[in-house]
Amino acid sequence: MPNSRKSGRKGAAGTRSAAPARPATRTRSVAPAxxxxxxxxxxxxxxxxxxxxxxHATFDAVVADLPAELxxxxxxxxxxxxxxxxxxxxxxxxxxxxxxxDPGHVSPDFPAGYWPTNPAPPSSAAWDASIARFRSDRDALxxxxxxxxxxxxxxxxxxxxxHLLREVLVAASHTSYHLGELVLVRRLLGAWPx
Length: 194
Hints:
The chain is mainly α. The chain has one domain (34-188): dinb family like domain (Four Helix Bundle (Hemerythrin (Met), subunit A)). The chain is 48% helix and 2% strand. It is built from six helices and two strands. It has helices at 4-7, 35-51, 59-63, 82-101, 124-146, 164-188; strands at 9-10, 16-17. The chain has a two-stranded antiparallel ribbon. Helix 2 (35-51) packs antiparallel against helix 5, helix 2 (35-51) packs parallel to helix 6 and helix 4 (82-101) runs antiparallel to helix 6. The longest helix is centred in the last third of the chain and has 25 residues, at 164-188. The protein starts with a helix and ends in a 6-residue tail after the last helix.
């Protein structure tokens, strides 16, 4: 049987008709970006990923204006309160930051060391301090990524082959996941949108 691409295709009456002509495709030669431009673009995207937004709610939007009396409440069907999720995100991000910049850092025990023991914050000041520490650690991670002297692909001399690129992707995806959980918990508590 002849190649139907070259000889056409069968029409309704069973006869071969010519294939519709395709417009000529032009290929445009684009000079590849310089390694420095690629490096800068990657760093910008990593910082944006840590900041959140775009198709996702930002950290600031999700933690804003949650009434103090709901911060320690676990809605029916949820194992977590807003406080538990906030502290978990903070502790995990802090651990990733410290692992990325301090070869002597010792991570908390897993999983217990990554979660608060009480579902409620000890005070409104503790809630505010957790938010401030999360932001501060995120800013430090962003500065580490934005520093062009930092090789994001270089494997850390400690650990099991991790590098900064991997750690930033883990931090951003982990935060995004738990922010989604926190939005759901807020909905179940009747406190979303903020």
